[in-house]
Amino acid sequence: NQIEKKFETGPLRHTLLVGFDAQAYDGFYNSGTGTAPSIDIFNPVYGQTVLMPTLRRTDVDGTQYGLYAQDQIRFGNWIATLAARQDWAESTTRSTTALQKQNDSAPTTRFGLLYHFDNGLAPYVSYAESFTPIAGTNFNGVAFQPEQGTQYEAGIKYQPPGTDILITAAYFDLTRQNLTTSDLVHIGYSVQVGAARSRGFEFEAKVQLQDGWSVLGAYTHLDTKYTSDNSGLQGLVPVGVPDDMASFWVHYDVQPG
Fold first, then answer.
1. CA–CA distance, 132 with 87 (Å, rounded to integer)
2. Digit-coded pLDDT (tens) for 193-219
3. What is the pTM of this model?
4. Calpha distance 171→150 (Å, rounded)
5. Do the Cβ atoms of 4 and 14 come closer than 8 Å?
6. Of 46, 146, 186, 206, which has fewest CB within 10 angstroms of its CB?
7. pLDDT for 184 beyond 80
8. What is the C-alpha separation between 211 and 221, in angstroms, rounded?
9. Sheet of 190-208: strands edge to edge?
10. pLDDT, tens digit, 9 for 90 and up, residues 20-59
């Protein structure tokens, strides 16, 4: 839920947004570890018996609440965005051997500044923080700390006067901390010593055509790697993160009648 209010203070034009959101989750998983017979990769023998390990059920449930406010301020061709958010998160992790409750809260902020030239160019800079609770515990039953992130971005937008064309180019630098990694001593558990960084640039162009048609094209180049890890992944690329991404969309909005 959110409320928006527009008002002026002298030469400043404000668009104030205040909101609240809530979410809840409830789930469980079964996990277990064990040993299997060795296998020679050059002369494999298949069909060996692998004993099913004893499984342990873990139930996880929790809630998260967020209260946020944003003020977009216009002064001439300048546009500034100031935002703050406060999150409260609670979770409970139950297993056959332990009961762990954790409460996390953190403030996050976001700032942006843009200047809109009369010729359609609009350079901007921004800074943002993130807060993501991580449910679960390590081998000793200690609850995980929330994942935290920061992002710096600078770019330029261009909309030729009198057209429905918008072109955006941006460079970003994002870091994530408190990532969970494999516990090398206690198999099947995780420790929280990981960190990753993602840098890159992206280009996007959107053209609004006639009769409800529009096209959107985008390209992103990423330089992503682990900056901290306990299992030899430091300096390597996280699983599932590409070096390059591209997309092209065609949209059609059904016209009246």
1. 9
2. 889 999 999 999 999 998 889 999 999
3. 0.79
4. 14
5. no
6. 46
7. yes
8. 33
9. 2-9, 12-31, 56-75, 78-95, 99-115, 121-132, 147-158, 165-182, 190-208, 213-228, 244-252
10. 999 999 999 998 888 889 999 999 999 999 999 989 898 9
Residue 234 amino acid letter: Q
| Among candidate residues 179, 183, 188, 195, the one with its CA nearest the CA of residue 144 | 179
Hey, is 52 helix, strand or coil? coil
Model confidence at 176, pLDDT cuts 50, 70, 90, reads: very high
Nearest alpha carbon to residue 139 among 102, 91, 95: 95
- d(CA 150, CA 197) in angstroms, rounded, equals 10
What three-state secondary structure class fits 179? strand
Beta strands per DSSP E along the chain: 2-9, 12-31, 56-75, 78-95, 99-115, 121-132, 147-158, 165-182, 190-208, 213-228, 244-252
For residue 213 the two structure tokens come to 């048609």
φ, ψ of residue 75 in degrees (nearest 5): -140, 100
pLDDT at 232: 86
Q: Which residues contact 232 (CB under 8 A, 6 or more apart)?
A: none
